[in-house]
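Hello,

I think I submitted the manganese (II) ion job twice by accident. Can you confirm which output corresponds to this input? Input:
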Amino acid sequence: MNADLHCHSVVSDGTLEPEALAARARANGVELWALTDHDELGGQRRARAAALKLGLPYLTGTEISVTFANVTVHIVGLGFDTDNAALNAGLAATRGGRRERAMEMADGLAKVGIPDTFDGALQYVGNPELISRTHFARYLVDTGVCDDTHDVFRRYLVEGKPGYVPHRWATLRNAVTWITEAGGVAVIAHPARYRFTPTEEYALFSEFKAHGGRGVEVVTGSHSASDAARYADTAIEFDLLASRGSDFHGPGESHSDLGTLPALPAKLTPVWDVLADRVHRPG
Ligand code: AMP
Ligand code: MN
Ligand code: MN
Ligand code: MN
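Support: Only one job matched these inputs. Its output is below.
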């Protein structure tokens, strides 16, 4: 099945509205879709309504920012109840420090001669509670400071660079618990992106499972073919369900468009096998 269970709208750091993403997913042949905005459920109702209108089955989704062993890890939640109070409160708390963080990022950039980036980035924000590094990156590209968003991250926004501000996100335990208690399944997003030692990575997967986490992204826009092969083995080692998602943020910006990824390796159990009764179906 062409499932795409990871992407972003203007409600977080994507460039398309939820309705436009639904239409794009449908046009690209997606058969099961989830919008997974960072730390935010504000686009869920619109995404679901648009998908169902197009005949596209929909799973609720989000991508929670977590700090684990001093590294930012992303946990995707799928198939939860969007009205769950603890999940909503947890996400609101996770979003909470973003504005202050962004002001500190702007201070750091001002010190190296790039002024006014807070107001600049704000012009790109669709949701005032969700100002992210991506919005700074777009501003710095459009003002000619850098050639593309990857260049901005590399030069200014990653650890050790002037616009980087360390931040404490949710705990792994809380993120997994919020998702699970809201009836959903927690999935480790794009594991190849984290700079962990083997011991730390083992701890991440072990603790994730101990807290009730059940899945891992194997095929994602953030993984090479060899990353996918490696985490297919990890999925088997830890007895985890496998997920698949483009992590699409917008045309011209993302590696992979909605619905265009390779299939999951046949030896894995897809996460959607256990989510059948959580899917919102047309008609
Ligand atoms: P934040 O939540 O504000 O720390 O921003 C994280 C977002 O920045 C991620 O969800 C990606 O969309 C984007 N991002 C992170 N690293 C890179 C990179 N190297 N190049 C382009 N985008 C990136
Ligand atoms: Mn993002
Ligand atoms: Mn992510
Ligand atoms: Mn993402």
